[in-house]
Specification:
about 210 residues; mainly alpha; globular
């Protein structure tokens, strides 16, 4: 059902990889901060859900402008920019400690969500555009599967780091560093991979 030859397309393989890495970082952090808000800062489950509203609320409006940004900068650059933006939010959160004010945290979570909103539309369109139209359904399924796999891996990985109450903050900080690194790797991969592909195409045409 899944032709492995699809992964021979550079952009197809790169966008699938980016989808995996981004979701490891994003959903892993949602899990960690759910624990942080409740275990460390004492919020109720309902208040914890509300604490994520700015993060998730940033995704939709940025989704709406992502296409225009991609038209101006190019899809690969927009994906890289979104991933780098989310990575900056992760790094800015490294100073959190028990009792850190919500607004300092919420602002950075909003940046992380905005980065995600910026990269997902061009990521999807790039992946679908890298294959024949007859295989677009398969391509969409691959992207969804890799992103879902990333979500599961993120929760498992970061949960193992932050699961122990005695070392929760150490694990939370480690999770933020890993998330930032994964997002920066995703940004570099799509940026360099697309540039290499364009250079190869130019040499071929020449």
């Amino acid at each position: 059902m899944l032709p492995l030859s699809l992964f021979g397309h550079r952009l197809f393989a790169l966008t699938a990889l980016v989808g995996l890495l981004v979701n490891v970082a994003f959903y892993g952090l949602i899990f960690v901060f759910s624990l942080y808000f409740q275990r460390v800062n004492g919020l109720s489950p309902f208040a914890t859900g509300l604490a994520f509203l700015p993060m998730m609320g940033a995704v939709l409006p940025v989704n709406l402008v992502a296409a225009r940004v991609a038209e101006r900068l190019g899809a690969a650059a927009t994906i890289a920019l979104g991933a780098a933006l989310s990575a900056s939010g992760c790094l800015a959160l490294l100073g959190i400690e028990p009792g850190t004010g919500y607004w300092a945290i919420g602002a950075q979570l909003t940046i992380i969500g905005g980065g995600l909103g910026l990269l997902v539309p061009p990521l999807t369109s790039t992946l679908l555009g890298s294959v024949e139209k007859s295989r677009s359904g398969i391509a969409a399924g691959v992207l969804n599967s890799t992103r879902q796999t990333g979500s599961v891996l993120g929760v498992a990985l970061f949960g193992s780091l932050a699961g122990r109450s005695s070392a929760f903050m150490t694990g939370a900080h480690a999770s933020l560093v890993i998330s930032a690194c994964l997002l920066l790797v995703a940004a570099a991969a799509i940026w360099c991979g697309a540039a290499t592909g364009e250079a190869g195409a130019a040499r071929h045409q020449g």
